[in-house]
Every structure is written in structure tokens, then in C-alpha cells.
Design brief:
heterodimer, A: mainly alpha, two-stranded antiparallel ribbon, 14 helices, 2 strands, 73% helix, B: mainly alpha, ABC transporter involved in vitamin B12 uptake, BtuC, 2 domains, 2% strand, globular
């Protein structure tokens, strides 16, 4: 098989394997995995295109399917961005586990900016920008600490995650400085709808301009990596830091910038979530959210390529949105945990997959040696 | 006075900055803790500049923390302070420190052998769930503990296989372990007990020491404690002895610092790492079990809520040493206990709650960066070893 085909096929095989593992889990709790997966597929709204077929042969309810698909796209939007965040750092040979913290710092900055600067579309887009910049700053910290103090970014980002989480939950918590006026719940004010991102499709949970922000970010990601000096430096450092240094690339500068941009993507995810979908920040969400961690799965599955990340985000969003569609014996909560299991399995397989490929190559070489000898 | 003494007195002064503001001394003026903290910082700074780097760093840190908390204590009114600082607070500190110690010891073995284990959180959660499951089904907490240990060990075996044999990225594998455990335990919990189920497992017993319970102050802290707290104290001592005073401990450290050299002298690197990682899972799971049916009496989804990560922080802050881990876990446990009583009293500003909650992570961050007594991990940690 050509290298290109292997590169395309491995994620597909990974996903299939993970679904098989998930299916076994479903079987173990005496439900039919095919039925569960089918209703997740429908719940994600992936049956929507079928209504376009002449005569609607599958009898798809266009309204329901559209609304399901909208939820999937809404959930995919921040995932594309947190996925890009993890992917960009990976390209520089670093592991950004800090997406969670950068996301919430971004959310907070975006929310405060949109609430205070101007409650109109200008404020909204300033808010989007503020979220990105705040994420960049928060992300640059571990990059800086790694470049100049040699502190491992995994440890520093884990610590910074919790610092951010507690900080945001304090800011918007009970008696906190930004809790909504008169709120007895730890929730901020709701942004006036003039400050929301414009909607594009749907009513109930509409797809917003945030989706375009995410797709544009994926495009920019590709351009930075492929077409700029910075991207070249980042990739060079990721391949081999010593060689890059020898070639005159500033490894430290690349690390700080890569982590800053990585944090910027995660911060942007926070911006589009709070300005597009949630319109407010609640302390409980801050602790419950897993978007930063799901971003790791998205990036690993998408092999750090922009298209891969978009597709990976779509898959995980569909798993989550589709879980809501289940009922009866198989509760939505159960389905959501199942989605988490599948996600974990994917990460595990991707982690071990390099090795599988390496084993293949070695066997092929051994065979070749035998044939030659 | 020697330099060492200066540093040591700096540490003591830092602690004093806090101690004078709480019962029984109860200094009410902000100046008192601040002056003491400043003295601690000066002493620490002097020691730092003149070569006692680690000790000086500790003194500066003690001064900063003591001053900050002393400031918090003087800014609250007297009754609040008396309500917070009780023997109960320190007993509660021990309770919060215990899961950190179990998981931290687990992390210590894995990382000393050269395998990063950020899957501690997931292994704790797994122990918490399977402990309750086995305990509830059998009606015995002993079976619960055994079940937790086996489940944690098996999950750690997955991590070991991927990071040792398959030489996968250990961070990726650990992340997968965490996510798998989150999803897996939540799934099984719902599948077995349904929505809103509340399985009650028999709890790990509390041990009351008859003579001690009536001694003032000490009795309030050590009089009645959970069995697992005493167990983890014993484990700490045993771990210290094992790692630093036995040939097996030396092998463990050799594998974590320089696996190639260890291999050359005939140590089986893979075997040492497997044993270390699996025991790390067992220990973390016991910590989780303590959470679910020692401290509490049942399981809830995602109940570890980052405890595994604080344990990791405590391990790093304690510089991968049992004694250091103990100190860090006590400090972080105190932070949790303080946070808890601040929340229940609710008269102190939420800002101080935030400061207390964030303290473990901020301190660890500072330690890793090396501003204060730098934490340096085992040399080969996180790097897969390829046999030749």
C-alpha cells in the first residue's frame, strides 16, 4: 500500500475499531449496538441529506433531521477549534493539555468584552477577538516556561487548567465579581441578543457565524503551517528540535509562538461558544466541560491536518448530539458515556497505532532481508 | 548563625506568620503576619543568595503563603477564624490528604521507573467505582478494596502495555486511560444501578484509639480516623524504605534515570516498569476506594473531580520523594479542608476561597518552573525504552 493510502486509511480503521469496542460495551449491557448506533446516526441529523433524494425514499422528517444536524454542527464548532489548538502544538512537538483552561479564559474575555464594550455587533466581534487574544496569552505562558525554564508543558498546562477553572468559577460564582445581578445561582447575566453572533441556519439551536470562524481558523491553520516562515519553523522544531536549532531556527521563539497560537485557537473556541451558543457563563459548566480534552481526541484522529480536524470534530460532535436521541432502555446518559468510551478508545488506538505501522514496516523489511539473503 | 539556620528560621517565621493570626494567639492586626512574613522572606532571600538555594526557596515560599493566609485570617472577624481553625480542620486535612497520598505514591512508583502516569485520575475513578460495586454486591468492604485494587491494576496494565511494549506516547495513553475511565465507570454505573441509583457499600471502618481520643487537641485530630489513613501512613514509610534503602528500590530508580545503563547491568527494564505501573494503578485505585466508601459511602459519576491531578501535583511539588509527597499532600489537604470550611461558613469573601483552592496548583507551577527549590523529574520519565 502506498504511504498516502495508509495515511488515509488508518483513521478510518481506528474509528471502526473504536466503534466495534463501543459495540461490545453495548452488547454487554444486552442492547443491540446496531440499533443504538442507528439512532445515534439519526440523532446527529446525518439522515438530513436523504430528504433531498427524489421522493424522499427513507421518509426522513426534514424538520427534525435539520434540527438534529444543527445541534451537531453547533457542537462541532468549538471542537474544531480546540482540536486545532492541540494539533498546532503537536506540530511543534508539544502536547497542549491546557485547552480547557485556554477555552475558559477565552470565554471569559469574550463575554466581558461583549458585555461591556458595546452591546452590538461591533462588541461581538471585538469579543471574539478578545477571547482569542486572552487564549493566546494564557497559552503562551506554558510555551514561555518550557522555552526558558525547561518546565514540561504537560505539567504546566494541567496546573494552568485548574487555575483557570477556579478563577472563572470564582468570577462568575456566587458573590463573585461578575455573577448576574440578583442571581442566587452561580450564573452570569445573559448577553443581550444584539451581542450574539449572527445566526445562519435554524431557530431552536441555530448554527451561527461561529461555524465560519471555525472553518476559517482551519484554513488559516493550514496556511500558517504550509505557507509561512513561522509554520516552517514550527514544523522543523516538531520534527527535530536539535536539527532546527542547527539550521538557525530559534527553537525558543517557535515554542512560545506555537503555544500562543495554540492557545489562541482554544480561546477562539471559548469566544464562539459563549457568544454564539451559551450567551452566558455558569460556574457548573466550567467544571463539567470537556471540550479541551475532546480536542485531544479530535487532533489525534485528524492527524493534525486541518481537514482531519474538521472531520474529527464532526464525528465527536455527532456522537454527543446523537446520544440525546436515544430513549427507552438505552438512556441518553448511557449513550453519552458510550460516546466517551469510544472517544477514549480512539485516543488509545491512535497512541498505539504508530507502533502497529512500525511493526508492519519492520516485518516487511525482515521479509525483504530474508528474500535477499 | 550558619546559613542553614537562617534558612530554617525563615521557614519557621513563615509558618508563624499564619499561626499568630489563628487561635490560640489570635493576633488581629495585619502588621503582625506581614512583618513575620517579610522577615521570613528576607531570611529566605539571604539564604538563597548565599547558596542555600532549596532551603532559602522554602523560606520565601513559607513567608509568601503564611503572609497571604495571615492576611486572610486578620481580614476576617474573630468568630469566623475561631470557627474555621479547629481540631476538626486538621482531621479534615488528613482526610483530604489521604487519597492524594495513595495516588501520589502510585505516581511515585510509576514515574521513578520512568513511566509518566497522568492516568492516575482515571485509575482512582475506576477504584472508586469497582470498590463500591464489589463492596455492595458482597456486603464486605474488604472485598470492595480487593475489587478496587484489581480493577485499578488491570487498567494500569493497559497503560503499561501501551507505554512499555508498544512504546506509545505515555501522555496520550494516560489521557486515553482518563477518558476511558470517565466514560466506562459512568456507563457501568448507569447500566447496573440505573438513573439516580445510589448503591450503598459497607464503609471502611473508622479506628478510634481509646487512650488518644480524650487528649485535648491531639485527640480531636488523631483520635478517630479512617483505617485507610493509618494504612497510607504505613505505606509512606514502607515506600521510603523500599525506594531508598533496598536493592529493589535502587533498581527502580536506575531504570527511571538511565534505563540503558540498568539494562547493561542485567536489570530487566520492562519487568521493573510493568511492576511499577501496575502497583501505581493499585495504589491510585485504593485512593479512589477511600474516596467512595471510606470518606463517603457511594459512587457518583466523575466523583474524583481532579483529585488524581492534585495527587500528581503533590508528587511533583514533593520532588518525587515520599517525604516531600507527604508534606505536599498535607499542604494541599489543608487547602482543601480550608476551602471546604470557608464554603460552609460563607462569611469570608469568595476571593479567599479562590486563593485557597488555587494554592496547590500555583505552588506546583512555581516549583516546576524552578523559582523556588526546583522540581526535577527522574531523567528518563516519559521516554519509552527500546530493548536492543
Amino acid at each position: 500500500m502506498s504511504d498516502r493510502r495508509v495515511r488515509f486509511l488508518t483513521p478510518v480503521v481506528t474509528v471502526v475499531l473504536a466503534f466495534v469496542v463501543g459495540g461490545l460495551v453495548v452488547l454487554a449491557s444486552s442492547a443491540n449496538p446496531l440499533v443504538v448506533y442507528r439512532s445515534m446516526f439519526v440523532g446527529a441529523g446525518f439522515d438530513w441529506p436523504f430528504h433531498l433524494l427524489p421522493g424522499n425514499p427513507f421518509g426522513v422528517n426534514e424538520m427534525i433531521a435539520a434540527s438534529n444536524l444543527q445541534s451537531t454542527l453547533v457542537e462541532a464548532t468549538p471542537l474544531v477549534l480546540t482540536g486545532l489548538a492541540v494539533a498546532f502544538a503537536f506540530r511543534c512537538g508539544m502536547f497542549n493539555i491546557g485547552g480547557q483552561g485556554q477555552f475558559w479564559i477565552g470565554s471569559t474575555a469574550a463575554f466581558l468584552c461583549a458585555e461591556h464594550v458595546a452591546q452590538n455587533q461591533l462588541g461581538t466581534w471585538l469579543g471574539v477577538l478578545a477571547g482569542m487574544i486572552a487564549g493566546m496569552v494564557w497559552g503562551a505562558i506554558p510555551g514561555f516556561l518550557k522555552a526558558f525554564r525547561g518546565a514540561h508543558e504537560v505539567i504546566t498546562t494541567i496546573m494552568l487548567n485548574w487555575i483557570a477553572i477556579f478563577m472563572v468559577s470564582w468570577l462568575f460564582g456566587l458573590n463573585g465579581p461578575f455573577v448576574g445581578e440578583g442571581n442566587t445561582q452561580p450564573i452570569s447575566d445573559t448577553l443581550p441578543d444584539t451581542a450574539w453572533l449572527p445566526t445562519i441556519w435554524g431557530v431552536l439551536q441555530p448554527v451561527t457565524a461561529g461555524l465560519f470562524v471555525a472553518l476559517a481558523a482551519a484554513f488559516v491553520y493550514g496556511v500558517i503551517l504550509r505557507r509561512t516562515t513561522l509554520g516552517f519553523a514550527v514544523r522543523a522544531v516538531g520534527f527535530n528540535a536539535d536539527a532546527a536549532r542547527y539550521a538557525g531556527i530559534s527553537v525558543r521563539r517557535s515554542m512560545v509562538l506555537a503555544m500562543a497560537l495554540s492557545g489562541g485557537f482554544a480561546g477562539l473556541a471559548g469566544s464562539v461558544s459563549v457568544l454564539g451558543t451559551d450567551h452566558r457563563i455558569t460556574s457548573l459548566d466550567v467544571f463539567a466541560s470537556q471540550l479541551g480534552f475532546t480536542g485531544i481526541a479530535v487532533a489525534l484522529l485528524g492527524r493534525n491536518t486541518p481537514l482531519g480536524v474538521v472531520l474529527g470534530a464532526l464525528l465527536f460532535a455527532a456522537l454527543d448530539a446523537g446520544a440525546r436521541n436515544l430513549g427507552g432502555d438505552f438512556s441518553p446518559e448511557l449513550a453519552r458515556s458510550l460516546a466517551t468510551v469510544i472517544q477514549g478508545t480512539i485516543i488509545l488506538i491512535v497512541g498505539g497505532e504508530q507502533v502497529v505501522r512500525w511493526a508492519f514496516v519492520r516485518r516487511r523489511r525482515a521479509l525483504a532481508n530474508e528474500a535477499a539473503g | 548563625m550558619t546559613l542553614r539556620r537562617v534558612g530554617q528560621s525563615g521557614v519557621v517565621l513563615g509558618f508563624l506568620a499564619l499561626l499568630v493570626t489563628i487561635p490560640p494567639v489570635n493576633a488581629r492586626s495585619l502588621a503582625v503576619p506581614l512583618v513575620l512574613a517579610a522577615l521570613a522572606a528576607v531570611a529566605g532571600g539571604a539564604a538563597l543568595v548565599h547558596g542555600e538555594r532549596a532551603l532559602g526557596g522554602y523560606a520565601v515560599a513559607a513567608g509568601a503563603v503564611g503572609g497571604l493566609l495571615g492576611w486572610a485570617a486578620t481580614s476576617a472577624d474573630r468568630s469566623t477564624v475561631t470557627a474555621i481553625v479547629t481540631a476538626g480542620l486538621f482531621a479534615s486535612m488528613l482526610r483530604y490528604a489521604t487519597p492524594l497520598l495513595f495516588a501520589g505514591l502510585g505516581g511515585l512508583f510509576a514515574e521513578r521507573s520512568g513511566v509518566t502516569n497522568i492516568g492516575l485520575e482515571g485509575m482512582m475513578l475506576t477504584g472508586a467505582f469497582f470498590g463500591v460495586l464489589c463492596g455492595e454486591k458482597s456486603g464486605s468492604w474488604v472485598v470492595g478494596l480487593v475489587g478496587a485494587a484489581i480493577a485499578g491494576g488491570l487498567l494500569a496494565l493497559v497503560h503499561a502495555f501501551f507505554s512499555i511494549h508498544l512504546q506509545a506516547d505515555q501522555i496520550i495513553s494516560g489521557t486515553a486511560i482518563n477518558i476511558l475511565a470517565t466514560g466506562g465507570t459512568a456507563y457501568l454505573f448507569r447500566a447496573i444501578y440505573g438513573t439516580g441509583g445510589y448503591p450503598e457499600a459497607p464503609r471502611i471502618p473508622e479506628i478510634t484509639i481509646p487512650g488518644l481520643a480524650h487528649v485535648p487537641l491531639v485527640g480531636g485530630v488523631f483520635g478517630t480516623l479512617n483505617l485507610m489513613i493509618w494504612v497510607v501512613f504505613a505505606l509512606l514509610v514502607a515506600a521510603w524504605f523500599f525506594v531508598f534503602r533496598t536493592p529493589w528500590g535502587l533498581r527502580l530508580r536506575a531504570v527511571g534515570e538511565h534505563p540503558r545503563a540498568a539494562d547493561t547491568v542485567g536489570i530487566n527494564v520492562y519487568r521493573v516498569r510493568y511492576v511499577a505501573v501496575v502497583s501505581s494503578g493499585v495504589l491510585a485505585a485504593l485512593g479512589g476506594a477511600y474516596l467512595s466508601f471510606g470518606l463517603l459511602s457511594s459512587f457518583s459519576e466523575g466523583m474524583t473531580a481532579g483529585t488524581g491531578f492534585i495527587a500528581l501535583a503533590a508528587l511533583i511539588f514533593g520532588k518525587w520523594r515520599p517525604l516531600g509527597l507527604f508534606g505536599a499532600a498535607l499542604l494541599f489537604g489543608l487547602a482543601s479542608a480550608l476551602g471546604n470550611s470557608l464554603q460552609s461558613i460563607g462569611t469570608l469573601s469568595v476571593f479567599w476561597l479562590f486563593v485557597v483552592q488555587v494554592l496547590p496548583y500555583a505552588l506546583t507551577l512555581i516549583a516546576v518552573v524552578g523559582l523556588v527549590g526546583r522540581s526535577i523529574p527522574p531523567a528518563a520519565v516519559g521516554r519509552p525504552y527500546a530493548k536492543r
